[in-house]
Amino acid sequence: MKVKLIVEGGAMKPGPVVSQQLGPLGINLGKVIGDVNTATQGFKGMNVPVEIDVDPKTKSFSVKVFSPSVAELIKKELSVEKGSGAPNNVKIGDIAFERIVNIAKTKLPSLLAKDLRAAIKLVVGTCVSLGVLIDNKEAKEIEKDIDKGVYDKEIKEEKTDPSAEKKKQIEEFFAIVKDKQEKAAKVAAEAKAAEEAAKVAAATAAPGTAPPGATPAAAAAPGQPAVPVTGKTAPAKEEKKEKKK
Fold first, then answer.
1. Distance between CA atoms of 49 and 69, rounded to whole angstroms?
2. Each residue's pLDDT tens digit, 14-23
3. Structural domain includes residue 96
4. Which domain holds residue 32?
């Protein structure tokens, strides 16, 4: 029987999901977790697909580790935990094209791609959805550059490591991008706070709004101040009664 799980590389822990799927098989969960963590040690910090093949009769098992998803490999490369919630406006990192080639080579056997070039384009497409720049440019622009042959040399030579100078340029460029994003986010947050404060102030000062516990005012003649309704007999009627006496 085969059980498929997604685990954190080198850090699988006992839990409801593990117990639910493996517990009924009667195998040693502690040993399974230990073997899986050993097998996935090289993928620390990434979510890794694993397959545990269990023999119900002998209670023996084997662990098969699959390569993490393209998105996980990109996030690992950039040392980030998640993609951008607004990939068109907020970028989570900047990656060298050579590292895209490396990821494509790693995933090529499991991708629906006919060759390395096609695999690279799939990886670049994932960068678009994650909000990742490539060589200081939008990933969509890199897709066009690949079609134009701009990266033919890198693809043909299967270059996987950028030069130290290129790494520095990318780091410096993204530092500027990140700083601009943080300033823009701060301005947006301040503007939103000011807008909310204005709404509260407007609601408090709205015409006809009485302070808490105040008695509504009675309608008054044009040009005259409103008279609070007190529930007592009007003074004019009291004066008439005294005259009759």
1. 8
2. 888 888 888 8
3. yes
4. 2-65
